[in-house]
Every structure is written in structure tokens, then in C-alpha cells.
Design a protein that fits this description.
The protein is α+β, with helices and mostly antiparallel strands. The protein contains 7 helices and 7 strands, in the order ααββββββαβαααα. The protein has a single domain, classed as 3-Layer(aba) Sandwich (oxygen-dependent coproporphyrinogen oxidase), CATH 3.40.1500.20. The protein is 40% helix and 24% strand.
Length: 258
């Protein structure tokens, strides 16, 4: 790392990491809340390794960033850079279960062969109208506006569908100047609108009773367990940092509500 990070809110400063402006904007938009860092072991806060040959080593850098608020159990962002070719931002907002709120999820991935983009307000209880209607009525116009300007990402597996809303913004597009333009002029603006909608829902939310909270907690756990089991980054994390560390990071940091 180019500087010392000693808590979850320490600035991420990974050379060449494409998604820094997105993370900083997220932080800015949440800055009017009383946000606090949370305890995170050093081995998860910052992680580095080298891959490739002795003659041509490739540096791998991972930083974990996040915070908590009175309504949010945990915001966590995994920020990964591999050499000059792979840049990943994986960001999830997990609300406390006594607030009837979706997750906020952003997964922005730059690989050697292109960009993969996923953005959504993901339901904990997809078949529960009380949980979904207030979100979907407002997210669908935003989704239609921005998805029309993005290449579609293709079909998603049937077992994943319960964990995405109809407002799931999903795209694949190539590297190069055209891809850079999509990121700066389309994705960035869509991302801001999704965050602002989430903030509106957050501000409007009120504490639920015990029975409802338990229903929401069950849905949240199902979501986290699915994400942990199916995490597409598992192979990368294992190859960069080893199986034991990767599994503990996935289950104890990324998707920890088990």
C-alpha cells in the first residue's frame, strides 16, 4: 500500500485502481450521516501478494473499506487491483434487520477481456409486497433510463433471480475508449441515482417490530448465504491469497451474516 490504513474508513489509495472515484462519491453521499468505522483485522483490512513469474511479477493489492450507521449494520467494499489489468469494486450495504430495506449492491469488474457491471437494490424478501413495492415503483424508471444506454449483460442463472430486483442494472462491454466513456458518462450517473434512491429509502424507514424484523433477518441471511456460496470472486481470491484466507474473507468479511 502507498500509505498506512489502520481502520475501515481509511482512504483507499491503490495505484491504478479504476473505481476510486466511485467509492469516494459513495462516501460523499453518505457523509451527512454519523458514520463510524468498524473493527476489522489487519489481515482483512489490507492484503498484498505477488503472482506471475520471478522475472515478471504482478502485484496484487486488496483493501477493505466500510462503515456503520444507526440504520446500517455494515457497509463493506472490497477494492482489488491486479497489475494493470484487473480492477474490481464489490460494494454491499447491509441494513439492520429492524428496517424494511433492501441491500444496495454494486459489483464493477474490469478484467483483461472487458468490463462486467452489476448494480441493484437487492431484496431480502422478493415475494413480499411490503418489502418490494416501495422500492420497485421507484427503481424501475431509473433502471429503464440507464439500461437503455448500456449493452445488456445477458441472462442470469435461475437460482440467482430471487436475489435481484427488476431494477437490476446489468451490462458487459469491451475495454478501450468506448468502454471508458460508458463508465464515466453512463455508469457513474446511474450509480449516483441508485445511491440517492437508497438514501431516500433509508431516510423514510422506521424501526419495525420484532416479528417483522425476524422475517427480514431470515431473508437477509438467505441472501448472504447464497452470495457466500456463489461468490464469483472465489477462484480469484484463492489464486491470489490462498484457499484458507479466501474462504475466511468471503464468509467472515464479505458475507458475514450467517
Amino acid at each position: 500500500m502507498n500509505h498506512i490504513r489502520n481502520h475501515s474508513l481509511s482512504k483507499v489509495n491503490i495505484k491504478g485502481w479504476r473505481w476510486l472515484v466511485f467509492l469516494e462519491k459513495f462516501h460523499q453521499l453518505f457523509s451527512h450521516y454519523e458514520i463510524k468505522s468498524y473493527s476489522l483485522e489487519d489481515r482483512y483490512l489490507n492484503k498484498e501478494s505477488n503472482i506471475g513469474s520471478i522475472k515478471k511479477p504482478v502485484k496484487v493489492k486488496l483493501a477493505t473499506w466500510g462503515f456503520i450507521t444507526n440504520k446500517i449494520r455494515k457497509v463493506r467494499s472490497a477494492c482489488l487491483q491486479v497489475g494493470e489489468s484487473i480492477s474490481i469494486l464489490n460494494l454491499v450495504v447491509s441494513p439492520h434487520c429492524n428496517y424494511d430495506l433492501p441491500f444496495f449492491g454494486a459489483d464493477f469488474v474490469t478484467l483483461k477481456n472487458g468490463h462486467l457491471i452489476a448494480l441493484d437494490l437487492q431484496p431480502a424478501l422478493k415475494n413480499d409486497i411490503k418489502h418490494t413495492k416501495k422500492v420497485w415503483d421507484r427503481i424501475l424508471p431509473i433502471h429503464q433510463k440507464w439500461q437503455s444506454l448500456l449493452p445488456h449483460g445477458g441472462s442470469i442463472p435461475d437460482d440467482a433471480k430471487p436475489y435481484f430486483s427488476p431494477g437490476f442494472l446489468w451490462s458487459r462491454f469491451p475495454l478501450g475508449s468506448d468502454g471508458d466513456k460508458i463508465i464515466s458518462e453512463v455508469l457513474y450517473e446511474a450509480y449516483i441515482e441508485y445511491i440517492k434512491l437508497y438514501l431516500e429509502l433509508l431516510d423514510e424507514s422506521i424501526s419495525e417490530g420484532e416479528e417483522r424484523s425476524l422475517e427480514l433477518l431470515k431473508g437477509q441471511k438467505n441472501y448472504m448465504q447464497y452470495r457466500a456460496k456463489k461468490d464469483p470472486a472465489r477462484g480469484l481470491l484463492r489464486s491470489y491469497f490462498g484457499e484458507e484466507w479466501a474462504e475466511s474473507y468471503i464468509n467472515q468479511v464479505l458475507f458475514d451474516l450467517q
